[in-house]
Amino acid sequence: MIARKLASLALGALCVAAWTGHATAQSYPTKPIRWIIPYNPGGGTDSSARILQIAIERAKLLPQPLAAVNVGGAGGSIGARQVKDAPPDGHTILIHQSALLIQDAAGISDFGFRDFEPIISINAQCMVAGVFEGSPYTTMKALMDEAKAKPRTIVWGGNIGSANHMAIAVMEKSSPGAEFKKVQIGGAAESYAGLKGKIINVGNFGVGEILAFQSGGLRPLAVLSDQRDTTIPDVPTAKELGYDAVFCNEHNLYAPKNTPRERVAVLEDAFRKALESESLQKEYREKLGVTMTIRTGQALKDHLAAELERFRPMTVGMKP
């Protein structure tokens, strides 16, 4: 009798737990989801997020709106930290680029991707070396020869520890002896302004940022990829020019650590459906020149762990 009563109570408890979990999943999200973009408007991360936000809302893939907010500063770490420290309820999420891994590998930041719940990969955008019209460095060779002959005299500007910093680092490694003077100026929009104002001499940009700023005087010298980008087909790769410099910046979506798995699954499903849309993929190609490999779950975590280890030797000595 007692055993039967205990079994009945246990079954009842399991049913309540199952019902509660189901209700929790069904009721999420209960309010707008705050989507932190840890960079200022105008760059590749911001553009990637805004295009994706519109696609999700147009298709009504979530019952609550995505409230995208730019929280720039410190190479993306200020906005990222806000999400890391947010309640793990799925109502605050983060888009971040490879900088999250680069800063961890370099010891610039005290947190990394393992302090979040990775949700889904978004896209990858290969970097481009760029100068402003009228620059004496009209070719990649002229730029690298000068950086080698007169180390630390050519001023590069960007976000220290970010993707554009990694891009200039691989350029230096491709030409032993070449070294640029590095200054913290900000993301793509700030780098473009720095070139235009002659505060810096060279910057690194995503393909989409080249497309956005080219009509305003930004001049691409070389794409840091294995092959030419079809959106800027006249721009050679660094490899074509004899420099083994390849780096593509990846964007991924994260939630705070310990966000319930069922809520991560809701976000994963919505973003996957948007990313698999042919219209969104076309817009990404034409506006940003990005490629897409969708990863989720353990596959994404394994990829991020492998990228972190790949970056470690490349970030040795990474400093202004």
Topology:
Layout: H1 2-27, E1 33-37, H2 44-58, E2 66-70, H3 77-84, E3 92-96, H4 99-106, E4 116-132, H5 140-149, E5 155-158, H6 163-173, E6 181-184, H7 188-196, E7 203-206, H8 207-213, E8 218-223, E9 248-256, H9 261-275, H10 278-288, H11 297-311
Parallel strand pairs: 1-2, 1-3, 5-6
Antiparallel strand pairs: 3-9, 4-7, 4-8, 4-9
Describe the fold and architecture.
The longest helix has 26 residues, at 2-27. This protein has helices spanning 2-27, 44-58, 77-84, 99-106, 140-149, 163-173, 188-196, 207-213, 261-275, 278-288, 297-311, and strands spanning 33-37, 66-70, 92-96, 116-132, 155-158, 181-184, 203-206, 218-223, 248-256. It is globular and about 65 Å long. Helix 2 runs antiparallel to helix 10. By secondary structure, the chain is α/β, with parallel strands linked by helices. Helix 2 links the parallel strand 1 and strand 2 (66-70). The chain has 2 domains: 33-123 and 251-315, D-Maltodextrin-Binding Protein, domain 2; 126-223, D-Maltodextrin-Binding Protein, domain 2. The protein starts with a helix and ends in a 9-residue tail after the last helix.
Strand portion: 15-25%
Residue-averaged pLDDT: 90
Main beta sheet? 7 strands, mixed
The structural class is alpha/beta
CATH architecture label name of the largest domain: 3-Layer(aba) Sandwich
| Shape by Cα distribution | globular
Total domains, how many? 2
Helix content: 40-55%
Distance between the termini: 75 Å
Classified by CATH, the class of the largest domain is Alpha Beta
Query: Could you say what the CATH topology of the largest domain is called?
Result: D-Maltodextrin-Binding Protein, domain 2
Number of helices: 11
Radius of gyration of CA atoms, rounded to a whole number: 22 Å
How many strands? Answer: 9
**The CATH H-level homologous superfamily of the largest domain:** Bordetella uptake gene, domain 1
Spell the H/E element sequence. Answer: HEHEHEHEHEHEHEHEEHHH
Residue windows where pLDDT falls under 50 for at least 5 positions:
1-24
